[in-house]
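quick one before i forget lol
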Amino acid sequence: MDFKLIIVPEAEIEISEAIVYYESKQQGLGSIFVQYLDGYFYTLVKGKAFFEIKRKPTFRELPLKKFPFIIIYEVVRNTIIVYSIFNTHQNPDKKIM
């Protein structure tokens, strides 16, 4: 069963900011980041892996291996809602939820 994926506007902004940052460091690195992130989204949508609940009520965290980010999401019925693509180099107090 495939899950529907919803990325909230705040998470879209975080993704865009990461792309701009990586492109400023090396041309093409932003595209690599997006492709890598899409692979994680694919895993979630296909229901291949769900990670433990980290926060109340039911927020989960999926750390990326090659980039310093965590996907913060929730599973609601047949939908994955992505709330944040959190940069782990930021102040942890900025982490939503």
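fyi Residues 2 and 70 are 22 Å apart (CA to CA).
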